[in-house]
């Protein structure tokens, strides 16, 4: 096993990831200490998360996602688009057909659009989870509770009328650790309806323990909760995040997230160095 490991840095609407594959490093070597160090923006490569992709001797590639704190996550929507871009770049998949990748929460389809965008399918529980204790969550007067949805990972969805809401990170941190969500906690999303077709979404991500520029599962959960509460007949929304624009489409019982992903740079890093 190499001690100098090749990696690829990929960003998807500002959500950035370190991509590795099983030709270069075994999954078992990626412990939480290594992952935290490599994701550190001062002492490592710097990223919101790390994704290991296995494709050797597999009919369907498998992605394993880790948060920047070294914890494992079942799914990352922007990370899924980053993996699609990575697999295309290294020649493992084709632009011309529907592709499939396995994650901890199941099998996901992904497509490369003629526009250059990447569309991925996300898996969601059949109905919103009801948590009565949500009613008692301490919220500012200018923030409304909308609901809760699990898109591979849990998401609390809040709404505000203020497009430049201040102190969101402090609000997200306080709710992320609320006891009603158990020991694993939750991600926290704050949405603002710009018009009937567009939502602004901000997300405080657990595992990163900060607001990120974009969160794919977060914008998907926010879209589902918003449409369920406000406009059940609508099937798609444009999403604006601090890292760029996304689109969520509901089609024939399936849920799709579309947006860009770009290779930022490639390099090598020393394992245990």
Automatic annotation (TrEMBL):
UniProt site positions, description: Could be important to modulate the pK values of the two catalytic cysteine residues: 155, 205
Reaction catalyzed: (2S,6S)-2,6-diaminopimelate = meso-2,6-diaminopimelate
Functional pathway: Amino-acid biosynthesis; L-lysine biosynthesis via DAP pathway; DL-2,6-diaminopimelate from LL-2,6-diaminopimelate: step 1/1
Residue positions of the active site: 76 (proton donor), 76, 215 (proton acceptor)
InterPro entries per UniProt: DAP_epimerase_AS (IPR018510), DAP_epimerase_DapF (IPR001653)
Keyword terms of this UniProt record: Amino-acid biosynthesis, Cytoplasm, Isomerase, Lysine biosynthesis
Biological process according to GO: lysine biosynthetic process via diaminopimelate
UniProt-recorded Gene Ontology molecular function terms: diaminopimelate epimerase activity
Entry EC number(s): 5.1.1.7
Top class in the EC scheme: isomerase
Binding sites annotated in the UniProt record for substrate: 15, 67, 77-78, 187, 205-206, 216-217
Matching PROSITE patterns: DAP_EPIMERASE (PS01326)
GO CC annotations on file: cytosol
Subcellular location: Cytoplasm
Listed Pfam families: DAP_epimerase
Family: Belongs to the diaminopimelate epimerase family.
Quaternary context: Homodimer.
Entry function: Catalyzes the stereoinversion of LL-2,6-diaminopimelate (L,L-DAP) to meso-diaminopimelate (meso-DAP), a precursor of L-lysine and an essential component of the bacterial peptidoglycan.
Record-given protein name: Diaminopimelate epimerase
Lineage of source species: Bacteria, Pseudomonadati, Calditrichota, Calditrichia, Calditrichales
